[in-house]
Specification:
Elements lengths: L1 E7 L3 H12 L5 E3 L13 E2 L9 E2 H14 L3 E3 L3 E5 L5 E5 L4 E9 L3 E3 L5 H5 L5 E2 L2 H4 L8 E4 L3 H11 L5 E4 L9 H9 L3 E4 L2 E9 L2 E9 L5 E5 L2 E4 L3 E3 L30 E3 L11 H21 L4
Parallel strand pairs: 1-2, 1-8, 2-5, 8-19, 10-17, 11-12, 11-17, 12-13
Antiparallel strand pairs: 3-4, 6-7, 7-8, 9-18, 14-15, 15-16
Helix pairs in contact: 1-2, 1-7, 5-6
């Protein structure tokens, strides 16, 4: 059997693609991967997704999206795609359970994973003070002191964003210089309420049952250890797109994000479409991921129609 549409990944992009594909009678099959629901499964309050005036818990929102996709007869399979072959007009994928699946179109929605420092305290205070997204969670720390760790554009952007909400932002930079672009560095350095801690590494995040109360840092030049009192700790050391299995087939940028034709979800392989954070290194929001999931389904539908398959 050759499916009309197979969707790899189950975040906002994947489920939205499934909803649109199913309503277009494409009978989509969606493989959830090891982390059904994606990054929103480790997010508590989601307050910036339209349609939820009181906010919603991340896992609850993803369950709603799954139910909506299944309502239109999307077949959701809890399995991981481990290998692909995009060499022919019919695309092939293999799953962890050993299944070989053929499809006319593939929609990739495998997302990206935030890079973490690897501290136990990072996990302990996840969602009660520790975050990897200032745009998502900065609102909860209005009027509080916060810390951002990182030295690249992501860290500079996060610090600049938080500086508009918080009285003071501590930017923890491991080296004596930043990797961020010149314009982003200037913006951070000029901000009166951003204090940069050079040559500084995070030893531990501390807090209590209510959340983060501070971060213990070490100067890697002087070995001085001190605690900075903060209520929020934002990790901004980058993201890793979950695209390794497509390395031999799809065009990617230098960091692994899938490249698409501007204004579309078309990859360099006919019949293969990319959506969500796997191809978006700029916005990385649930709403933008969902939007590109819609685009991918529409692009796939038009492709199938032009080929006379549906």
């Amino acid at each position: 059997m050759v499916h009309n549409c197979v969707i790899i990944g189950s975040g906002p992009a994947g489920y939205t693609a499934a909803i649109y594909a199913a309503r277009a009678n494409m009978a989509p099959v969606l493989y959830t991967g090891h982390e059904p629901g994606g990054q929103l499964m480790i997010t508590t309050d989601v307050e910036n997704f339209p349609g939820y005036p009181e906010g919603i818990m991340g896992p609850e929102m993803m369950e709603d999206l799954r139910k909506q996709a299944e309502r239109f007869d999307t077949k959701v399979i809890s399995d991981m795609v481990t290998k692909v072959d995009f060499s022919g007009p019919v695309h092939k994928i293999w799953t962890e359970s050993g299944e070989e699946v053929h499809a006319h179109t593939i929609i990739i929605s495998t997302g990206a994973s935030a890079k973490w420092l690897g501290l136990e305290s990072e996990k302990k205070f996840m969602n009660i003070g520790v975050s990897a997204c200032a745009v998502c969670d900065g609102f909860f720390f209005r009027g509080m002191e916060v810390a951002v760790v990182g030295g690249g554009d992501s860290a500079a952007e996060e610090a600049s964003y938080l500086a508009k909400l918080c009285p003071k932002v501590h930017l923890i930079v491991r080296r004596d210089e930043m990797r961020a672009s010149k314009i982003m560095q200037e913006r951070v350095i000029k901000a009166e309420n951003i204090e940069i801690h050079w040559n500084t590494e995070t030893n531990e995040i501390v807090g209590d049952s209510e959340g983060v109360t501070g971060v213990i840092v070490r100067n890697n030049k002087t070995e001085e250890i001190k605690e900075i009192p903060v209520k929020g700790f934002f990790v901004a050391i980058g993201h890793t797109p979950n695209t390794a299995i497509f390395n031999d087939w799809l065009d990617q940028d230098e960091t692994g994000y899938l490249q698409v034709k501007p204004g579309t979800t078309f990859t360099n392989v006919e019949g293969v479409f990319a959506s969500g954070d796997a191809q978006d290194k700029t916005y990385r929001q649930a709403i933008t991921a969902a939007g590109t999931g819609c685009m991918a389904a529409l692009d796939a539908e038009r492709y199938l129609t032009e080929k006379g398959i549906i």
